[in-house]
Amino acid sequence: MNDEMLKTMPDQFVSQVAARMKKFKKEAITLYLLNEEVEGYKISYKSDGKLDYQIIAYGVANGQPVLVQLLLDREPETNNDIPEFARQLIKLTK
Length: 94
Known about the structure:
single chain
């Protein structure tokens, strides 16, 4: 991914998910990716009769433009709602 892709790809990605899912909701959030503050979305949608959740984080971390997609089976309200391994990369708060 390059800096130019980082400007458009996250919104395109979220729009593609929204087009395929029912009861889609997105919320813009600020979070931390490798301890760098970045932008992202917390999204939810109905899939197979239940609500699923994702965190999409994008920005520059360690000098590299990155986009991270984290799939969750419960709403991520705190860092404890994120699996321990994933918390090494992404945090909702410091």
